[in-house]
Structure to design on (207 residues):
């Protein structure tokens, strides 16, 4: 197989806004559907973004032994799926510390960060509400709104995989993309909330 990087330019997809938002555009949406295929759907999105069309979530689910209803183990992703990445000359590895700075180093190159986390009810509710306010109200008012929000509780439920595709260092937010359809192409979450629900981050890096 040819390397994805032979016709891929990540930096061309990075957008910057006056308010400090930096995010990756043009990542194809794949809806995980009712099967709970968050890992396979997210992996398919990454592959399509890297211009590799012939790997879909059903093939990935087969490689990673994903059960219907969800349940892809991260051990399988980091071992079995790594072999698939190698086939396409993609490198797979962990990001290290979960910080805006470490994530921004990949986003600035147009490389999405795969994020394993707990999508708890409280986290998801706040993500949706904050994103709606962010889109529909004055940005300064929005910044004040999120500044003093209480911490969400730490719960080990709702294991999920999505992508971090952007950041804003001024507002201390991350841009997240979930495989749930177009409405969830980009949502914004406070880094303080993301830190509470985070498990690990890894990247699939085009050579």
């Amino acid at each position: 197989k040819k390397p994805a990087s032979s016709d891929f330019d990540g930096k061309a997809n990075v957008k910057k806004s006056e308010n400090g938002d930096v995010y990756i555009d043009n990542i194809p949406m794949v809806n995980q559907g009712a099967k709970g295929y968050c890992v396979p759907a997210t992996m398919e999105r990454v592959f399509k973004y890297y211009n590799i069309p012939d790997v879909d979530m059903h093939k990935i689910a087969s490689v990673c032994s994903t059960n219907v209803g969800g349940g892809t183990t991260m051990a399988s992703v980091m071992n079995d799926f790594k072999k698939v990445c190698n086939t396409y000359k993609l490198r797979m590895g962990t990001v290290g510390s979960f910080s805006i700075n470490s994530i921004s180093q990949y986003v600035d190159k147009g490389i999405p960060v795969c994020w394993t986390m707990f999508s708890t009810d409280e986290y998801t509710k706040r993500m949706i509400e904050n994103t709606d306010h962010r889109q529909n109200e004055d940005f300064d008012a929005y910044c004040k709104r999120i500044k003093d929000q209480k911490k969400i509780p730490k719960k080990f439920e709702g294991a999920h995989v999505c992508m971090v595709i952007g950041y804003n260092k001024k507002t201390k937010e991350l841009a997240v993309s979930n495989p749930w359809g177009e409405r969830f192409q980009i949502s914004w979450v406070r880094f303080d909330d993301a830190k509470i629900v985070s498990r690990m981050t890894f990247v699939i890096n085009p050579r």
Observations:
- The mean pLDDT is 87.
